[in-house]
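Input (structure):
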């Protein structure tokens, strides 16, 4: 038998709001409600509540977990808001596709983003340390590749304001990791989704700062920019997700078809098990816990360290470092 829904308490700054239905949630101020992800979570909670009969304990447990995730997400979101005052809004008319929430979705066709060479150079020169170290000729090649990469993608920006740095710098991270490769456009991925900060993903429900799924690369702009502003801590969500995109493009899509990337990757793959085992035995690790979850995460983290802490990676695991040099056909220490 259906039962009355369990009330949900939302905390916003110094105030608390108790709601008993989705209709009451919709009447709350926009600043309290948040975005569409939070509404879907609330709707799911009420739906589960009214449909739950004998499994009350099971629902109560999962409802509590869901609400705690929501509260933590809102607190983190409120504490970590940042203004990107140095960024310039895109000087183009964007399609406003989400009228149901306070968060806009700007859609830009890459082939319609006609950034000049000077614009691209200024943005990369300011924010991308890898670009700064390139010779003048290689910077010119980097910009040429960057233009082609941008033209090959569609950009969905879920934010109150869309900045030109968003498509430029995220595309530049892909150009960076593929700069030594002949095939660098990652054609399987037609779409880049950009959130202003961490975001909800579903099935399973979790909060992410970046992921690769289907033909979409998704990133948190806040974490992406912070990682490039701290280029030596070994953390870079942009490079991390582009490393996964490389795996999908050249390893997973056609597993039985051999290519140059796959041949070189197989040599790397023969080394990573030994390194993972060594890291698990250390108290002072170079790789974090997430890297040791599986081989895919280890690869993505290896790429982060390869670009951000190359000296330390080569010192501790010289064979692994050399193998990545071969896979990506570049050496940060030789730049």
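Output (sequence):
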């Amino acid at each position: 038998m259906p039962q009355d829904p369990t009330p949900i308490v939302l905390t916003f700054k110094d105030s608390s709001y108790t709601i008993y239905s989705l209709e009451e949630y919709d009447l709350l101020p926009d600043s309290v409600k948040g975005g569409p992800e939070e509404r879907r979570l609330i709707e799911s909670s009420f739906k589960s509540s009214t449909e739950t009969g004998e499994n009350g304990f099971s629902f109560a447990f999962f409802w509590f977990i869901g609400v705690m995730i929501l509260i933590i997400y809102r607190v983190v979101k409120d504490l970590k808001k940042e203004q990107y005052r140095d960024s310039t809004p895109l000087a183009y008319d964007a399609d406003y596709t989400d009228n149901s929430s306070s968060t806009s979705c700007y859609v830009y066709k890459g082939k319609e983003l006609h950034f000049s060479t000077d614009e691209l150079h200024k943005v990369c020169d300011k924010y991308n340390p890898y670009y700064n170290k390139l010779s003048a000729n290689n910077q010119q090649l980097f910009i040429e590749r960057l233009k082609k990469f941008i033209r090959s993608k569609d950009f969905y920006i879920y934010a109150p304001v869309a900045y030109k740095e968003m498509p430029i710098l995220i595309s530049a991270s892909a150009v960076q990791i593929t700069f030594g490769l002949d095939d660098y456009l990652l054609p399987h991925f037609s779409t880049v989704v950009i959130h202003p900060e961490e975001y909800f993903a579903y099935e399973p429900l979790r909060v992410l700062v970046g992921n690769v799924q289907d033909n979409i690369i998704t990133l948190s702009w806040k974490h992406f920019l912070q990682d490039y502003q701290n280029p030596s801590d070994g953390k870079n969500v942009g490079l991390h997700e582009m490393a996964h995109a490389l795996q999908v493009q050249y390893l997973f899509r056609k597993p039985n078809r051999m290519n140059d990337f796959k041949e070189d990757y197989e040599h790397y793959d023969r080394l990573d098990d030994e390194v993972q085992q060594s890291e698990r035995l250390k108290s002072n690790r170079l790789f974090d816990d997430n890297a040791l979850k599986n081989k895919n995460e280890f690869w993505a983290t290896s790429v982060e360290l390869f670009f951000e802490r190359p000296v330390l990676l080569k010192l501790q695991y010289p064979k692994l470092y050399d193998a990545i040099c071969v896979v990506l056909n570049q050496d940060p220490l030789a730049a």
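Notes: The chain has three domains: 8-79, 83-257, 258-335. The first strand starts at residue 8 and ends at 12.
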